[in-house]
Amino acid sequence: MVVPSHLRALHTEDKEAITDLGPITVAPPGERRSGYFTFTRDPALAKYSWPFFSITGRREGPTFLITAGIHAAEYTGIDAAMRLGRMLDPGQLRGRVLIIPLLNRPGFYERSIYVNPEDNDNMNRVFPGRPDGTWSERFAHWLLNEVIAQCEYAVDLHAGDMIEDLVPFVTYRETGNTDVDGRARRMADAYGAEWLVKAMPTGERSGLLFAAAAARGVAAMIAESGRIGQVEADAVARHVDGVQNILRTVGVLDGEPARVAPARVLNRFEWLRSPVEGFFRCAVRVGDRVKKGQALGEMVDLLGERLEAIESSVDGIVLFLVTSPAIKKDGLLLGVGVPA
Ligand SMILES: [Zn+2]
Predict the structure, then answer these.
(1) 121 CA to centre of ligand 1 in angstroms
(2) How far is the CA of 111 from the centre of ligand 1 (A)?
(3) What is the pLDDT along the chain (340 residues), one digit of tens a residue?
(4) Which end of the chain has fewer CB atoms < 10 Å from its terminal CB, N or C?
(5) Which residues, by Cβ under 5 Å, contact ligand 1, an ion?
(6) What burial letters (b/e) apply to 317-338, b meaning 16+ CB within 10 Å?
(7) What's the 43 CA to ligand 1 centre distance in angstroms?
(8) How far apart are CA 158 and CA 101, in angstroms?
């Protein structure tokens, strides 16, 4: 049997070479591979295929995962991931970069906000998932075990959803493992966002991808850039530049990292929800500093009659807000980060 030279190199010169990450065949050293993969072991998942890029350096190094589109209408993350997949040069890499630009594949052409139309659940609330659970739980299980947990680093790119405005920020979760936490903090600081949120949002379900990754020893974070379903060039560029600076900082991409100001830490993340169904008249903008007790807006009924005043429960910064005024009872209104 004649073995192509690049495969021979994989098998003889470098016994540690990684050839597969779960269902994804990684590019040989010095090459880029792109295409689509699926989870063949689960028939419900196998009806979709997911886009990927695999870019492998000739020099040994860590495995770095970039994901986007777990929320299918957060387009700046998806666009940045596609651009990074075409841009990163294997000749400048140490280790390997794997990019999955669109995790919520069922939701993309449906223009789904927040959820996966297969089960109407938020895919970023179901990790670590279950092999016998709902569609989203099964996807989370296979993605986490077969792909994410095989990586040393993971960045999940987000944006303001179709009905959300936000200021750029990064998030990671402290695990108590000083090595993992230290590497995640270096990544978060290298992205170049002004704000860093370390705390869980109040009243929210757990089960986020990056938190499940961190619990498995992967240095993982979220970056948020972009707003209200728009593909604004500066918001995409912030993701592309931020991820490249992280790759340089952790030694995966050649070149000196740009010296960016470390993010300012927000110790709490207060998510305000409406006590009533109605029309939200918002009185603040993202980036505003607000005081405890300050009016943030009001909920009115469909005749314009005031139902509830919405006041801030804390002193802090408005990091995101819901731009659609149509709010169900207990529906999310906005998020306020509380500085250290
Ligand atoms: Zn998101």
Answers:
(1) 13
(2) 13
(3) 444 444 434 444 444 678 999 999 999 999 999 999 999 999 999 999 999 999 999 999 999 999 999 999 999 999 999 999 999 999 999 999 999 999 999 999 999 999 999 999 999 999 999 999 999 999 999 999 999 999 999 999 999 999 999 999 999 999 999 999 999 999 999 999 999 998 778 788 889 999 999 999 999 999 999 999 999 999 999 999 999 999 999 999 999 999 999 899 999 999 999 999 999 999 999 999 999 999 999 999 999 999 999 999 999 999 999 999 999 999 999 999 999 8
(4) N
(5) 71, 74, 158
(6) bbbbbbbeeebeeebbbbbbbb
(7) 27
(8) 11
What's the 138 CA to ligand 1 centre distance in angstroms? 19
Task: Catalogue all structural domains in the chain, each as residue range(s) with its CATH number.
Answer: 15-262 (3.40.630.10), 267-339 (2.40.50.100)
